[in-house]
C-alpha cells in the first residue's frame, strides 16, 4: 500500500510508535510517506520505501498563531493526490485527526476517496482532548475517521466515557522491535555507575507533571535505606529543575544522574535492575515496554493501561498512584537476590507479547479492511 503517516516528530511515545510503524511497514514493502513539520527523530537513514514531506507553515503579521492545522491539511491533500496514497494514518488526535478529516473532505470534492485512520495515544484523550476547548472537535474528528485505534483497552474505555463516540474503536497496543531493544553486554557501564555492586534503578520520561518523577525520587530514597542503589534519570522536560531540587533536599543528589535525552536508551536499560513508572496517567507506557524488552522489571502506578502491560506480581507490581510506601516495599521484594532473576525473565517474556512482528500484521489487516469499506461505500 501507499500510506501517509502524520505524527509529532519529536521525542514522545506517539511519534516513536508512528515512526517505528512506518519503518516496519516500509520493510514489508509498503511505501510510507511521513507528513510532519520536521524529520521524525528515528527516521535518520535511507530506505527506498520511506519518504518525508515537510509541512510548510507560512506566517503572516496578521497571525498571532500560525495556522498549522490548515498547512497540515493542505500538505495531506497535496501528498495524497500526487503520491496517490491509499490511506492516511494519523497519530494523536489533536490536531492531526481534524486536519485529516478536512483533507478527506477536500479530496472527496475532487473525486478522491481517502480512508482516514486515527490512532489515539493517551493525552489527546485523557488530558488535552477532553478539555472543553478541544472536546467538540476531537469528538467530531474521531467520529468522522474511517477507522479508529487506541493503544490500550483502558484508553478505549476512557474515550467512550469522555466523548460521544458513535463508532468502533479497535485496540492495537504499542509494540517493540526486539532486535533493537534487547539486553546488551554493557558491564563496564554498570561498573562505572555502580562500582560497589549497587542496584541500578532507571526512569525515562519527558519530565512532565503527569509522570510524577517526584515519586521516582522518593521511592529511590526509601529503597536506599535498605539496599545500596543508584538512580539514572533519562529524558528532559518541565519538571527537571524541580526534581534536581528534590534530590538535593533529600540529600541523594550524589546517587542520582540526569542523562538528558538519550538516543540509545537501550544501552542504559541493559544494565538496569528496576524501572519505575509512577505516572498519574499512562495510556500504555511504551517506555516501560522498552525496559521490559531489556529484561528490566517494573514498579509502576496502576494508572490507565499500565496494568495491561505490567502483570502484578509477575513482571513487577502496580500500586495506587502516589503510594510511595507500597512501591518501595514492592521494589525491595523484586530487588532481593531470591527474586530478581525471575522478575527479569518474566519481564522479557511479557515484552515478547508486544513484538512488532505480532502487532504489525494487525495494522496491515486493519488498513485493508478500512480501505475496502471506504471503497465499497463510495460505489
Ligand atoms: O507520555 C507522554 O507524555 C507522551 C505521549 C505521546 O503522545 O507521545 O505518550 C502517549 O503515547 C504513548 C504511545 O502510544 C503511550 O505509550 C503513552 O503511555 C502515552 N502517554 C500517556 O498516556 C501519558
Describe this structure in words.
This protein is of the alpha/beta class. α3 packs across α5 (135-144), α8 packs parallel to α9 (240-250) and α11 packs across α14. The protein has 15 helices and 13 strands. Helix content is 43%, strand content 16%. It has two domains: 2-175 and 356-378, Rossmann fold (3-Layer(aba) Sandwich); 187-354, Rossmann fold, CATH 3.40.50.2000. The strands form two sheets. Strands 3-2-1-4-5-6-7 form a seven-stranded parallel β-sheet, sandwiched between helices. The two termini are 20 Å apart. The mean pLDDT is 95. β12, α12 (306-309) and β13 (316-319) form a beta-alpha-beta unit. It has helices at residues 13-27, 68-82, 93-109, 123-126, 135-144, 153-162, 187-193, 213-223, 240-250, 265-269, 286-293, 306-309, 324-335, 340-351, 356-378; strands spanning 2-6, 31-36, 50-54, 87-91, 116-120, 147-150, 170-171, 199-204, 229-234, 256-260, 274-277, 298-301, 316-319. Bound molecules: ligand GMT. Residues 12-15, 17, 92, 121-123, 151, 174, 206, 208, 210, 281-286, 304 line the site of ligand GMT. Ligand GMT is lined by residues 12-15, 17, 92, 121-123, 151, 174, 206, 208, 210, 281-286, 304.
Amino acid at each position: 500500500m501507499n500510506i501517509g503517516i502524520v505524527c509529532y516528530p519529536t521525542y514522545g511515545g506517539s511519534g516513536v510508535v508512528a515512526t517505528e510503524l512506518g519503518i516496519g511497514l516500509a520493510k514489508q514493502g509498503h511505501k510510507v510517506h511521513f507528513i510532519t513539520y520536521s524529520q521524525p527523530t528515528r527516521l535518520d537513514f535511507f530506505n527506498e520505501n520511506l519518504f518525508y514531506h515537510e509541512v510548510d507553515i507560512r506566517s503572516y503579521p496578521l497571525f498571532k498563531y500560525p495556522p498549522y492545522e490548515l498547512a497540515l491539511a493542505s500538505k495531506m491533500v497535496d501528498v495524497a493526490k500526487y503520491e496517490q496514497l491509499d490511506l492516511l494514518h494519523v497519530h494523536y488526535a489533536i490536531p492531526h485527526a481534524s486536519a485529516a478529516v478536512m483533507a478527506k473532505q477536500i479530496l472527496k470534492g475532487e473525486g478522491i476517496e481517502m480512508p482516514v485512520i486515527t490512532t489515539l495515544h493517551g493525552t489527546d484523550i485523557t488530558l488535552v482532548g477532553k478539555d472543553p476547548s478541544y472536546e467538540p472537535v476531537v469528538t467530531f474528528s474521531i467520529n468522522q475517521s474511517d477507522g479508529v485505534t487506541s493503544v490500550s483497552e483502558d484508553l478505549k474505555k476512557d474515550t467512550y466515557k469522555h466523548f460521544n463516540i458513535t463508532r468502533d474503536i479497535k485496540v492495537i497496543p504499542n509494540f517493540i522491535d526486539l532486535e533493537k531493544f534487547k539486553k546488551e553486554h554493557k558491564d563496564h557501564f554498570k561498573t562505572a555507575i555502580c562500582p560497589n555492586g549497587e542496584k541500578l534503578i532507571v526512569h525515562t520520561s519527558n519530565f512532565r507533571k503527569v509522570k510524577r518523577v517526584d515519586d521516582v525520587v522518593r521511592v529511590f530514597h526509601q529503597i536506599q535505606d535498605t539496599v545500596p542503589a543508584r538512580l539514572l534519570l533519562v529524558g528532559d522536560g518541565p519538571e527537571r529543575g524541580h526534581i534536581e531540587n528534590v534530590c538535593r533536599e533529600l540529600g541523594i543528589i550524589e546517587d542520582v544522574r540526569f542523562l538528558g535525552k538519550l538516543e540509545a536508551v537501550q544501552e542504559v536499560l541493559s544494565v538496569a535492575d528496576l524501572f519505575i513508572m509512577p505516572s498519574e496517567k499512562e495510556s500504555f507506557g511504551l517506555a516501560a515496554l522498552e525496559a521490559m524488552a531489556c529484561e528490566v522489571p517494573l514498579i509502576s502506578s496502576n494508572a490507565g493501561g499500565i496494568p495491561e502491560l505490567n502483570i502484578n506480581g509477575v513482571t513487577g507490581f502496580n500500586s495506587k498512584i502516589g503510594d510511595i510506601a507500597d512501591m518501595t516495599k514492592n521494589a525491595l521484594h523484586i530487588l532481593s537476590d531470591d527474586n530478581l532473576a525471575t522478575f527479569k525473565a518474566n519481564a522479557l517474556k511479557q515484552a515478547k507479547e508486544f513484538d512488532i512482528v505480532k502487532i504489525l500484521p494487525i495494522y496491515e489487516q486493519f488498513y485493508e479492511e478500512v480501505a475496502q469499506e471506504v471503497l465499497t461505500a463510495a460505489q
